[in-house]
Design brief:
This protein is mainly α. Helix content is about 65%, strand content about 0%.
Length: about 100
């Protein structure tokens, strides 16, 4: 039985969530970030804990609200390779393409 797509990439989303939490820490509350990114506080909590997938436009909104580059929130390519070593080729290709587009 095939695992749901989110399960295949859970570690990737956990790292993205950690980076968001680190960028937010000491600057904004979860509530303030949620308001600036047009999300709920619950969504921010779930994103930071890696429990919620993030649409690309939502990640852009979060980066803008935090005043950081999108690349600051996405793991670099070597980390992606490590995190996705057991993932499906289609999932790896999608994430690498998204990361490459996010680099300045």
């Amino acid at each position: 039985m095939r695992r749901p797509r989110f399960e295949e990439n859970r570690e990737f989303y956990a790292v993205v969530g950690q980076r968001i939490a680190k960028a937010r820490s000491g600057r904004l509350t979860q509530e303030a970030l949620a308001k600036k990114a047009s999300l709920t506080r619950t969504s921010i909590i779930n994103i930071e804990k890696g429990r919620q997938q993030i649409l690309l436009h939502t990640l852009v909104d979060i980066a803008r609200a935090l005043q950081v580059s999108l690349a600051d929130l996405v793991p670099d390519m070597t980390n992606i390779d490590m995190l996705l070593r057991d993932k499906s080729p289609k999932g790896i290709e999608w994430i690498k393409n998204a990361a490459a587009r996010a680099k300045p």
